[in-house]
Amino acid sequence: MSSGRDSTRVVPVAVIGPGRVGRELLHRLIKDDAYYRSRYGLEFRVTSVCDSTQGISRPVDGFRKEDLESIIAIKREGGSLTDFSRESAIRTPSFESIAQQAEPGLIAIDCTASEETTPLLLKLIKTGGRVVLANKKPLVGELSVFKQLTASPAACRWETTVASCLPIISILNRMTASGDHIASISGVLSGTMSYLMTQIEQGERFSESLQRAMKLGYTEPDPREDLLGHDQARKALILARTAGWDLDLSKIKVVPLLPGPFCELGRAEFLQRLPELDRGFLEKTRECGQEGAVLRHGVEITPDRGTVELMEVASQSPIGRLLNNNNLVQVESRTFSNPLVVQGRGAGAAATAAGNLSDLVELAFTRSEDQLQEQDRQGKNA
Ligand SMILES: NC(=O)c1ccc[n+]([C@@H]2O[C@H](COP(=O)([O-])OP(=O)(O)OC[C@H]3O[C@@H](n4cnc5c(N)ncnc54)[C@H](OP(=O)(O)O)[C@@H]3O)[C@@H](O)[C@H]2O)c1
């Protein structure tokens, strides 16, 4: 489908963090270049890439397709951007080039898992730049930072920080913009937890389900990071703040799936002693089943607090019918007294990069505050 436009608009793009998500994003920007030109009249031009060691940039002209392919190959092999040998690239300490002289219209995409990008993101937003986040960290620290980053719908998109490309942040933003009153948000924000609980429900042992989840790549390298519930707590906080509730992490109570002593073990001993947990899960699952309920390790958030814990839910409820490793979010509000439910794949580098591309397109068509003010000035002078 053609965009119906006569010209193509260039949008300079900076990719911060060419890890799994960042590389997938670069790959999609190369592969789908013709699609974005013809469908939207947009040319996304990558002018900067930064990893933890260095920033490389090619202002105005941007990197060529071969350059981006070389960057992807270097990072896939575990190398650093210091190994990138194109002479025309400007080299700076990490994201300094973006911080010092961001190009007009630049959209920076934070694909790191680092708090260190926060000052850069704030600076970009203050100076009329725009940002897309896959990185949760800048949004779960000080509330004032969250507010500064997300204040203007023209400056920031953070859809993939919760449940990857599953559109939940945009739904909450639309609900708040409509003046709806959100009463509660609940669900399962971890594919690992969905998988474990639905497998156990089907009669599989906890230890076997976890081993399989690790083999399938559903878990973090150390699966305890999923089981402890901190990642779900961070996502719950982002949902709460997006809904307009002024919470911080101390207001999100986390009850880990594992008994206390298990959290203290070394990784090898933990994996070896996993079968000790099987019986407890089996009994709990059986007890629940007799009451028409199932177990889920999920979140419940209200305007003043949140919890991440093992919950018993009706087996015929949306959360009870959750499938495989899906994420699910349900939102109850004045408009949606019968809760609005979103369910689907909620993780993976490809899905996350896809969500970042949607955010990019939206921002590319959104006028910045500066542009709107300029338009007002011109209107007054006419
Ligand atoms: N993977 C998923 O399924 C998924 C889903 C939703 C959201 N996310 C989020 O997306 C983000 C990226 O995930 P990932 O799986 O791609 O992580 P990853 O593979 O670990 O990649 C992280 C990248 O960030 C770079 N980096 C780290 N600190 C930096 C710094 N201070 N300055 C510049 N670059 C820095 C790293 O550089 P080096 O290469 O030099 O170490 C690396 O390239 C995370 O925040 C994650 O939570 C991921």
Our measurement of the CA-to-CA distance between the termini, rounded to an integer number of angstroms, reads: 37 Å
Helix content: 40-55%
Q: What is the CATH superfamily label of the largest domain?
A: NAD(P)-binding Rossmann-like Domain
Which shape, going by the Cα principal axes? globular
- CA-based gyration radius: 22 Å
Which structural traits does this protein have?
382 residues; alpha/beta; Rossmann fold; Dihydrodipicolinate Reductase, domain 2; 2 domains; seven-stranded mixed β-sheet; six-stranded mixed β-sheet; 41% helix; globular; binds NADP nicotinamide-adenine-dinucleotide phosphate
Structural overview:
- There is one protein chain.
- The protein has 382 residues and is of the alpha/beta class.
- It folds into 2 domains: 9-165 and 349-381, 3-Layer(aba) Sandwich (Rossmann fold); 177-344, 2-Layer Sandwich (Dihydrodipicolinate Reductase, domain 2), CATH 3.30.360.10.
- The protein has helices at residues 20-31, 33-40, 65-76, 96-100, 118-126, 137-140, 143-150, 169-177, 191-201, 206-215, 224-227, 230-242, 260-264, 267-272, 278-290, 349-364, 369-381, and strands spanning 9-16, 42-50, 55-57, 90-92, 107-110, 130-133, 156-157, 182-188, 252-254, 293-302, 305-314, 327-333, 340-344.
- The strands form 2 sheets. A 7-stranded mixed beta sheet has the order 4-3-2-1-5-6-7, sandwiched between helices.
- Helix 5 (118-126) links the parallel strand 5 (107-110) and strand 6 (130-133).
- The radius of gyration is 22 Å and the shape is globular.
- The relative contact order is 0.13.
- The mean pLDDT is 93.
- Bound molecules: NADP nicotinamide-adenine-dinucleotide phosphate.
- NADP nicotinamide-adenine-dinucleotide phosphate binds next to helix 1 and helix 16.
